[in-house]
Amino acid sequence: MSSLHQSRVPAMSFSSSISSCRLQWRPSTAFPARPRRRAPIVQAKIREIFMPALSSTMTEGKIVSWVKSEGDVLSKGESVVVVESDKADMDVETFYDGILAAIVVGEGETALVGAPIGLLAETEEEIAEAKAKAASSSSHSAASAAPPLPSPPPPAAAPPPPVSAKAAAPAPVDGPRKIVATPFAKKLAKQHKIDINSVVGSGPFGRITPADVEAAAGIAPSKTTTVASVASAAPAAAPSKAAPAVTTFPEIPGSTVVPFTTMQAAVSKNMVESLTVPTFRVGYPVSTDALDALYEKVKQKGVTMTALLAKAVAMALVQHPVVNSTCKDGKSFTYNSTINIAVAVAINGGLITPVLQDADKLDLYLLSQKWKELVEKARAKQLQPLEYSSGTFTLSNLGMFGVDRFDAILPPGQGAIMAVGASKPTVVADADGFFSVKSKMLVNVTADHRIIYGADLAAFLQTFSKIVENPESLTM
């Protein structure tokens, strides 16, 4: 049986079958041969450390200090540099392990958001290449920043030969032609009894000017005509050479020009941006005798007047959510889901608004503790972006300086801001005509009139006044 099987299926080896067949390879047109893949070339990994956007309004940042020096070994998540944004100083971390090969932007210098400020090498062998890359980029930026050298003036062209009036005149055509002349030229022609049809115009498209009429009358052109023609030609050339108007002020001897800091530039930009919002202002007097008595009781526990006012504002906003809303696109309301009270704080070199988030949900004592922490971080310029950019309503208090009233400018992205004046003794009369002395403070609210109307703001201020005049609910 086995012999029969072997006879039907002859045995052969793979090598013998290939050699006996002698197949020749021919490229197929249906399946073209693929080119061989080249071996990947391993290149040096030099990564850039970019200027981060630390806030939604930040366009450039200033290097305060480099925490690490060139040649230091860095680990992922480690602080490398301190950057001054438009609101605070923040540590910038690295996202990769490596060696700080080169510092592109030095301390005290500024860079646009997204621009490289340093180079990170993976190995020591790549440091030299990174330094060369940094040097080339810095030289390129310096060359682009340098003003271009003035090009030599082109050689003066030879003046064209004078053309006579007759030669410049268009060739006569058959039939009547339309006479184009200035009104003053027609008036002169009538005065000097000159046929306007016989005068050859030297103006654009053969237009007859007063000078042409005077030349035809044989009189010298008057100075007024020359001045008038020059004045009429000047506006035509003005648009091509006109530059944007720049307001200049007289220089005062001995004055010193100090450029804006990053924070001051941001404040200036926001204040100019706020001018595009249609706002209105409403003032309201509030009795503060009960609030002052409560403050005397709780200030020993660390409660500040700012915390009391912020809590009262938050409780009033709960009942009037439209005052806590925002108009972002000019077409719709945005009702904020949280009540975040931003409080204006003056710090060295600028103004910042730390935010008491969820102020309506925190009790008075926790709110006061949170406020103290925010003020300390603000003065140390260590606020995180969420701690100064998430406000839905702003409170500005100058009452501690004795200011009785003032108006505040609406911050961009919010619906209203309250300006609080000082509480002062005021003589008031009751319904029976009896006089008494009560402490009153005047609050002025500036609001976005696109989403908040006068009745909305009046109702909100009435609620705020009732809370301040009966402050027991603030401690609950």
Q: What do these coordinates show?
A:
With 476 residues, the chain is of the alpha+beta class. The chain is 30% helix and 19% strand. It is built from 12 helices and 17 strands. Strands 9, 10, 13, 14, 15, 16 and 17 form a 7-stranded mixed β-sheet that branches. It has a 4-stranded antiparallel β-sheet with strand order 1-8-6-3. A 4-stranded antiparallel β-sheet has the order 5-4-2-7, with no helix packed on it. A hairpin with a 4-residue loop joins strand 4 and strand 5. The N terminus is likely disordered.
Low-confidence stretches: 1-25, 160-175, 222-241
Give the overall shape. Answer: flat
How is the main sheet built? Answer: 7 strands, mixed
In DSSP terms (H or I, runs of 4 or more residues), the helix count works out at: 12
- From the alpha-carbon coordinates, what is the Rg to the nearest angstrom? 41 Å
